[in-house]
Amino acid sequence: MNGLDQVLHYFQANGRTPFEFQLETWRQYCAGNSGLLQAPTGMGKTLAAAMGPVMEWLDKCPANKGKQAKPKKRNDSTALTLLWITPLRALAADTAESLQPVIDALQLPWTIELRTADTSASVRKKQRDRLPTVLITTPESLSLLLSYPGTVERFRHLHSVVVDEWHELIASKRGVQTELGLARLRKLCPALRIWGLSATIANPAQSLAALVGPGNALRAKIVSAPDDKSILIQSILPEKIERFPWAGHLGTRMVADVIRQIESARTTLVFTNTRSQSELWFRALLQARPDWIGLIGLHHGSIDRKIRHAVENLLRQDKLKAAICTSSLDLGVDFWPVDQVIQIGSPKSVARAMQRAGRSGHQPGAASRLVCLPTQAFELIEFSAARHAVEVRNLESRDPIRVALDVLAQHLITLAAGDGFDATELLNEVRTTYAYADLTDQQWQWVLDFAHRGGASLQAYPRFRRIEETAPGKWAVASDALAKAHRTNIGTIASDGSVAIEFLSGRRLGSVEESFVAKMKPGDTFIFAGRTLEFRRVHDMVAHVRLSKSKSGAIPRWMGGRLPLSESLAIEVCHRLDQAAGGIYADAEMQKIKPILELQAKWSAIPRLGEMLIESSTTRDGHHHYIYPFLGRLVHEGLGALLAFRLGLRGFKPITATFNDYGIELLSPTPMELVEDDYRSILSPQSLLHDILAALNSGELARRHFREIARIAGLLVPARPGGHKSTRQLQASSGLFYDVFAEFDPENLLLIQARTEVLERHMEFARLKSALQHMIEKRFILMQTKRLSPLAFPLWAERIASQQLRFESANQRIERLAQQLERAAVETLSEK
């Protein structure tokens, strides 16, 4: 039998028939093509990608068919054949478990090994000398392999690379790091085939070009599985719905509803949008159901990996009733017992809703169930919008990052620490990537000089001479000691300074941000990893704790808390509001929120498509103007600052800007009499770049953001073996570099990159610019309201919640005004 026949026989023996997309992927692979496979979760992407190399090996190595004994000496047929790159270490183990039965059943003399941060030092050392047939690794570990001499020999028999969950990598610097690693492998192995595995995305052609390089994209193939997987989205509707909701006010009040939902299923994943929220819900569920101790687990990125792995294993073994988790379980780890997913709060994007729903019904043909629980009433609109967007597959694009010079600088040092590089050849190689296709000669020379001597402003300091020219155009690392230090900090993952949490016995629980621990004193209690802990002391970036009998404690807050509303979901929300304005409430969620929207229409207006609603009102706080672009919090943050700045130029000072996903509150202590022309003027896209830079103190934002760039580029070394640096030390160091460059090297390209990334990542500048143009083309609806409308109240509450009030808590004041408005609403609705 040929390779295809043997693979088909394997499927038949296991009671399965290959899907057409799997057969097509095998055909394209065996024809010598690279490509992108996009398919819904649970459809069999792993076997679609793996069986091509298996069939090729079976066809080319007939002498090895049916033999399970491993050869004593490594030869071409059992050297590294398949490299599998995955963004998560947990996925690495899951992939190995999926591939091993295939190799065993077909009696291939192949070995499978993992190489991640969890792999022991002894195994990693052996792998530098002898790699397995199939290596499953991460982008960072691939870079590490490239940083050791012997790269040519190590990879010379490599036939194929699979990049799993490519949609998660593509829009990050980890994706750029992967692109550079793949470019190096293509250079070493010209016949190499690269396949990316992805969930369904809106820009597959661009994603393919980033994966294989623009020059290879025309010859590569996109294979798509039918995206007809049934995804059922429903909501847990609160019995009572307040007409004046605000962010998070429902909180754990609906814990009984969640318990009933969990009891209705075999195994449930309960997704929250933040780690703090997962801690809160885990504790609330156990307080309500103490008999569930040991039957529910907690999983988020700050919990120690051993605890996370234990939870994952219990899920696989069908021993957990539920796991409360964050995006740490978003990706494709297969937990077959999971038949239901609960989403606490809005998923904030269509792709995230699909991704999380797909964690249930993780088998071909099975339906995925997503049950949504609102943390505030307006999220019901987002649930309704998400359902429709999923049905029509209105997904978000994942846009690749371009010309990240900090990642390129790191890559140069990585290759210099390995076999060295020829500058001209490497420039041509780098330009084959999507990320650096437009790299200029000037940028290349600047990065080369930066890696060589730290650039113009650092050339007097020997420690920044990281690579040296060994012959004309040939470069190598400056010293073995520098190569060793570089390897300990390879990677692009930005992390806030963290402090490890350990019991006094030495058992590690995970980590929290340094800023949280800095506020604690001995005896204080806090909740972490599902336990109430008493803080004792901190030493060498380790906080020592012990269990506390207290039933209360602070919950750590992590940076990057709230997810912004995506562009696709925001558009769907606007369509739902447009229908409501026309009296159409299409589903249960919209029917439930109908009383709120009807009151919004009575006191103000519901904005329709093509309309821009602006409300103004006066309270004891001052004079309020509420603008509703429905663009998400990131865009609104920049827009709020821009509007406050432009109003300040007109003499209105001070202006306080508050924002959420739906709109912006502008608060002034003095009246602002603004007419439509005034609003169109302050919303104009003209002089946008100049004004936004001035409005947001972009220099300080760029200065803070520069820390990430400085670390990736190798200016900061936060983790030398045996040593620690605090966040404050690292920020001070990066700030010093920033100030030196700004004064003595103002054209430093890393400075320019920091400013650019602040605009794009902190403010979504391109989306803001486009949105302003569309806004001024809309019909303006200016409403003077006697009191805060239902849409305005959450914005007002957002500002109050951030304040330190002297005589009452923020929640008390918010509740008090909500009750006053509720009484006014009852009176309004009772009027004939």
Structural summary, described in words:
This protein has 832 residues and is an alpha/beta fold. Among the domains are: 222 residues, 3-Layer(aba) Sandwich (Rossmann fold); 162 residues, Rossmann fold, CATH 3.40.50; 77 residues, Arc Repressor Mutant, subunit A (Orthogonal Bundle); 49 residues, no CATH class. Helix content is 44%, strand content 16%. The protein contains 32 helices and 26 strands. The strands form five sheets. A seven-stranded parallel β-sheet has the order 3-4-2-5-6-1-7, sandwiched between helices. It has a six-stranded parallel β-sheet with strand order 8-13-12-9-11-10, with helices on both faces. Strands 18-17-21-20-19 form a five-stranded mixed β-sheet. Helix 16 crosses helix 22. The chain starts with a helix and ends with a helix.
- Let me know the largest β-sheet: 7 strands, parallel
Query: What would you call the shape?
Result: globular
Output the radius of gyration.
28 Å
Report low-confidence residues grouped into runs of 5 or more: 64-76, 719-723
State the fourth-level CATH superfamily of the domain at 3-224: P-loop containing nucleotide triphosphate hydrolases
Fold-level CATH name of the domain at 3-224: Rossmann fold
Q: Which band does the percent of strand residues land in?
A: 15-25%
What structural class do you assign from the helix and strand content? alpha/beta
What is the name of the CATH architecture of the domain at 3-224?
3-Layer(aba) Sandwich
